[in-house]
Amino acid sequence: MELILIIGSPIIASIASFFSKKRKTSEMATIIAGAVALAAALFTALKVSSEGVFSPNDYFSVDALGAIIIVMITFIGCTAAAYSISYLRKETEKEIIDFAKVRQYFILFNLFIAAMLLAASTSNPIIMWIAIEGTTLSTAFLISFYNKPSAMEAAWKYLIINSIGLLLGFFGTLLFYTALTHGEGSIFSWDSLMDSAKSLDPMIAKIAFIFVLVGYGTKTGLAPMHTWLPDAHSKAPAPISGLLSGLLLNVAMLAILRFKVVADNAIGGQFTDNLLIWFGLISIVLASFIILVQKNYKRLLAYSSIENMGIAALGIGFGGLGAFAAILHIIYHALAKSLLFFASGNIFLRYSSTKIAKVKGMLSAIPATSLVFIIGFLTIVGVPPFGIFMTKFYILSEGLKIHPVQTIIALAAFVIIFIGFLTHAAAMLFGNVPEGISKEKENKLTIIPLAVLIIVFVVLSVYLPQPLKILIDSVLIKYQ
């Protein structure tokens, strides 16, 4: 019943939006669906923390990591839905979009959420692949939402690169499938793969994981497969950019981790750990230099997403305390990056530009959003006492024990990223407001969802609820 509510609610909201003739119908359906899915997700997570796994049938199973991802999707999805309503209303007032576009947005928004929830809750690797491919189709239309040539180009780039990447991931999945012991009633699932992993030829296991890492790593935004990400994130509506960065990348990382535990059971963990370390390090270093010279604040946030997924990959590769910190980092990054992309939406609504050079005097023009942006900036670069500081600290401390050279390189890249973010943030926050920029009061409805994200982030930075601790510990037991 819980999974029916979790996955079915956004699907029903999408159908309601399709048939709606008033925008309030789409808005209310999306908010109600989000609230129902969140309540069911929290109930499921509590059940998993107490029972270990929730498996209602052969095709659906929620383990600890799946429960964490599902709660993240439903919570951030709720805040994105609330923010989308006020954001799209403002764009309608400015005659950027009309009702037909609003209806299209909510149809695709809910399908996107449903596809991610299906990917996180299924026990079948093929269904997961189909669901993640489904996110590609729904979000491609959202990236091209404004029908501008640059947005259309970004959407096609996103569609082609991710489809090719997922085809490679599918080939890796089929190679893992060769390990499955076919018997009466056997079903292709993560558990059956684990049970049969020892029978997989080590060389095939290595090749299969490389295909999976490159394939799903494309969706995760790991360098050098990241090339779609800056364009897509910068052209999509701000709420969708938040979901792409805060949620979709983590769903793809979930797929990588599920295959990693199978590969580790076949060949040991050293091979997969080394791959994750190097892909993570390349992502961090590449993002650091581009962040330093970036001229577009949404692309700046996009490259920060590449960096942070690199950090998560690095922590998982380091293992031990680093892996614990990596799971926490995924949670913190989802909250912080969604917050920053929603804030970028407020900036765009006021300045009508995503170029850093055209955004000056934010503290005077949009003081509430500026405060949110400052907090988001401090969190994402890892300033204490925010949670990302601790996750970076734990990952680096673990890395110094076993991979000191790679760790020092990552630390140097973090310094460059901090300098880049500080330079760009200062340029946007201070100075004189350009002529023609309105100084009207900000809409509270575009601030409240951001405030909710800040509160949750701060609370989780200083206090981890016991069920969440149990879930993270369970993840480490299974995936290490």
Features:
mainly alpha, single chain, 78% helix, 480 residues, 2 strands
Mean pLDDT: 90
Biggest sheet, strands in spatial order?
A: 1-2
Give the N-terminus to C-terminus distance in angstroms.
31 Å
Give the count of helical stretches. Answer: 19
Would you kindly provide a brief summary of this structure?
The protein is built from 19 helices and 2 strands.
Written overview of the protein:
With 480 residues, the chain is mainly alpha-helical. The chain is built from 19 helices and two strands. Strands 1-2 form a two-stranded antiparallel ribbon. Strand 1 and strand 2 form a beta hairpin.
What is the secondary structure topology, with strand pairs?
Layout: H1 2-19, H2 23-51, E1 54-57, E2 60-62, H3 64-93, H4 99-121, H5 125-143, H6 149-177, H7 190-196, H8 202-220, H9 229-235, H10 238-267, H11 270-292, H12 297-318, H13 321-351, H14 362-365, H15 367-380, H16 387-402, H17 404-429, H18 448-462, H19 466-479
Antiparallel strand pairs: 1-2
